[in-house]
Design a protein that fits this description.
Layout lengths: L4 H21 L5 H33 L4 H22 L1 H30 L2 H6 L3 H29 L3 H18 L3 H6 L7 H40 L4 H11 L5 H17 L1 H26 L8 H48 L1
Length: 358
């Protein structure tokens, strides 16, 4: 009986649970490790994001007989030049819109209420729009909910980004060594695996690397193209703060599915304050741009490589937000992709044949 497979499995599970229980009793020993992980997760995640964006350029320069270290420094100089160009060409307009928005913010609610009052005077719209008291109460509730969600997300993000100066200083350093020596990491990780599993481990690491690269690069390209379409449309209809709203939409659209909805809200509000017709045209532009992205651009850029069901993505995002706030939402899909690849590979190696035989 002591040699039976069932008994050994049960004994292993009990030992694992006992280790977890004993570990929870001495959790103070792991506090320094947890603190270090929390401190490094943001700069490492940001460096990893830029790593996948810039690695194809570094690889191309290396094929042109340029050493990786020199290639990385060249990219840094080009990036600095792009920042200067942004500061000269784009920033003045963006800064002006930000200042105007901050200056006019106290009057935006009054303008919004005035537009609603005008609609209530219309016989058709007055049937659809609640009375002023009900509407004011509803608006207050919605605004409080939005402020509460934004505040909680910002607080969670600030808790992670506890030292902005250190993070800003460490990202270029981490990114430099990632770009310079990133290819050396997979072989080092494979040294921890038994010889018979090295091939499967190498394939799993390649699948993870390919999936993350396609997801990050594709997402950036899609967001840029989407925002270009939106910005052109906003300029055509004369939407106020068009550049500012487009920049906000660019960052919010990195949040899968939910981000597109959240990014639409400020656009509609600003458009409605200008006039109801501007708000309607703004929604039309966003819908058209989203359809172009989903039906034309996404199949070309991603193809069938991003096989994540929308319902699964929403559940993963909600779980990520519950565990780690805004940062968890942003990292949820990449983390899910990594876990999915590992689980599928482990199943194929250890369980697939046994399940088929049964």
């Amino acid at each position: 009986m002591m040699q039976s497979k069932y008994f050994r499995t049960c004994l292993g599970i009990i030992a694992l649970l006992l280790i977890i229980y004993l570990g929870s009793k001495v959790s103070f020993l792991f506090n320094p490790i947890v603190s270090m992980v929390k401190m490094l997760i943001v700069p490492v995640a940001m460096a990893g994001f830029f790593y996948y964006l810039l690695r194809p350029i570094v690889d191309y320069l290396e094929r042109q007989k340029i050493k990786r270290a020199i290639g990385v420094l060249m990219i840094y100089f080009v990036f600095a030049g792009l920042i200067v160009i942004f500061g000269i060409v784009v920033w003045p307009t963006l800064k002006e819109q930000i200042e105007n928005f901050i200056k006019n913010a106290p009057f935006l609610v009054e303008d919004l209420q005035e537009q609603i009052n005008q609609l209530q005077q219309n016989p058709y719209w007055s049937r659809l729009i609640p009375t002023e008291t009900e509407l004011s109460s509803s608006l207050a509730d919605y605004v409080n909910q939005i402020i509460s969600w934004v505040t909680n997300s910002i607080n969670n993000l600030i808790a992670v980004v506890s030292n902005v100066v250190i993070i800003i200083a460490t990202i270029p350093i981490i990114l430099y060594y990632m770009l310079k020596e990133g290819s050396k990491l997979p072989p080092r990780l494979l040294t921890f695996l038994p010889r018979q599993y090295k091939k499967d481990g190498k394939e799993a690491l390649n699948d993870i690397d390919k999936a993350l690269s396609n997801f990050i690069v594709g997402k950036v390209i899609l967001n840029l193209l989407l925002c270009v379409l939106m910005y052109i449309g906003f300029l055509i209809i004369g939407l106020p703060y068009s550049l500012l709203l487009t920049v906000i939409s660019f960052f919010l659209n990195f949040i899968p599915y939910i981000g597109a909805i959240v990014a639409t809200i400020p656009v509609v509000i600003v458009g409605f304050i200008e006039s109801p017709s501007i708000a309607i045209w703004s929604v039309v532009i966003i819908i058209v741009a989203q359809q172009v992205q989903d039906n034309i651009l996404t199949p070309v850029i991603f193809g069938k490589q991003l096989e994540i069901h929308p319902l699964t993505a929403v559940i993963v995002i909600l779980l990520g937000g519950d565990f780690y706030g805004l940062l968890g939402i942003l990292l949820a899909i990449p983390a899910y992709m990594i876990v999915k690849i590992l689980v599928v590979r482990i199943y194929e190696v250890f369980l697939a044949e046994k399940v088929e035989e049964a």
